[in-house]
């Protein structure tokens, strides 16, 4: 048997050591991968559990909101205004250890309904377009955006003066077409050619997308919208004065609103184009649920369906958007 020289024994020991190092490295990699997968699976499981718990909390918030709306709608033709309990923010409240709930509600009928830019026959509502022009100016935007929005919704392909139809939008990259029908989300304004996010951020608090013909609630409409309706500049620069007049009541009510028009014919013209009211049936509930270190937001569209005689009724959830 051949005996290894000292150099051969050294080489053999080096190979054995290298093999051991490689095996240890492989074992470390495998152990790390297993630990990572286990941790990731645990986090996924925890995230799924937190998501389910957040959904339960937000559904509970919807029930609280529905009860608040119903309480204020029990009386037939009772005004809906910002001094009532439905408008008061809820929380943040720790409903159980590590679970915090906060919610607030807005009256969507206190905003300009973009679908009212067209009439029941799908044609452009000229008077509503003029009101929208003034609203755009009151919030610091160009009034020229009113007609493209009306053309976006109207039910024909004819390009109105100052408007836009397929020829403009199909040239975009990628190209698209206007719906030429009522919309379900006011963010469709972002699809207008060159409108942009900066303009949207200014008009977003003042617009909504509700069924065509839905009335504007005078009691909750902001000053910019009230001034657009009356073609005045009384409240746009005086939000504090408007809030003082609204303390615990509806303002302006129907009678005081009618009195803002020096010309009864102008009031009648507006009434035929844009209905106004002191009552609301459409609300948006914004809920934030915090589970541990995770935040979940829910936006719920609530609709009050009036009962017999104009009072009572029930509140239904017609849509939900959930984010985290």
Strand segment tally: 9
Helix content: 40-55%
Number of domains as seen in the coordinates: 2
The CATH architecture designation of the largest domain is Orthogonal Bundle
User: With helices defined by DSSP (H or I, 4 residues minimum), what is the helix count?
Assistant: 9
- CATH top level assignment of the largest domain: Mainly Alpha
CATH H-level superfamily of the largest domain: EpsJ-like
Instruction: Name the quaternary structure.
Output: single chain
Which structural class fits the helix and strand makeup?
A: alpha/beta
- What distance separates the N and C termini? 73 Å
Low-confidence stretches: none
Q: Estimate the global geometry from the Cα principal axes.
A: extended
Which percent band covers the strand fraction?
A: 15-25%
What is the element string, with H for helices and E for strands?
HEEEHHHHEEHHHHEEEE
Biggest sheet layout:
5 strands, antiparallel
Strand order of the largest sheet: 1-2-7-8-9
- Rounded mean pLDDT is 86
Rounded Rg = 30 Å
Q: What do we call the CATH topology of the largest domain?
A: Ribonucleotide Reductase Protein R1, domain 1
């Amino acid at each position: 048997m051949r005996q290894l020289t000292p150099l051969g024994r050294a080489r053999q020991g080096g190979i054995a050591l290298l093999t051991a190092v490689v095996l240890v490295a492989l074992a470390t990699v495998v152990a790390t991968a297993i630990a990572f997968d286990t941790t990731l699976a645990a986090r996924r499981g925890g995230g799924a559990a937190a998501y389910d718990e957040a959904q339960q909390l937000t559904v509970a918030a919807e029930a609280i909101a529905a009860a608040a709306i119903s309480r204020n709608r029990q009386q037939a033709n009772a005004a809906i205004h910002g001094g009532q309990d439905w408008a008061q923010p809820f929380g943040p409240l720790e409903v159980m250890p590590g679970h915090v709930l906060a919610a607030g509600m807005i009256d969507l009928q206190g905003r300009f309904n973009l679908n009212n830019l067209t009439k029941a026959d799908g044609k452009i509502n000229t008077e509503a377009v003029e009101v929208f022009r003034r609203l755009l100016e009151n919030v610091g935007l160009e009034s020229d955006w009113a007609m493209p929005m009306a053309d976006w919704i109207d039910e024909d392909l004819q390009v109105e003066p100052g408007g836009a139809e397929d020829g403009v939008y199909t040239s975009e990259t990628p190209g698209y077409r206007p719906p030429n029908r009522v919309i379900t989300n006011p963010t469709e304004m972002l699809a207008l050619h060159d409108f942009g996010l900066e303009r949207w951020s200014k008009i977003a608090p003042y617009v909504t997308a509700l069924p065509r013909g839905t009335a504007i609630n005078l009691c909750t409409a902001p000053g910019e919208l009230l001034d657009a309706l009356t073609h005045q500049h009384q409240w746009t620069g005086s939000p504090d004065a408007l809030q003082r007049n609204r303390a615990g009541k509806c303002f302006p009510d129907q009678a005081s609103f009618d009195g803002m028009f020096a010309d009864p014919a102008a009031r009648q013209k507006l009434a035929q184009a844009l209905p106004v009211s002191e009552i609301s049936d459409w609300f948006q509930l914004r809920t934030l649920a915090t589970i541990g270190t995770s935040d979940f937001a829910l936006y719920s569209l609530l609709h009050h369906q009036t009962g017999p005689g104009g009072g009572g009724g029930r509140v239904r959830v017609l849509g939900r958007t959930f984010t985290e």
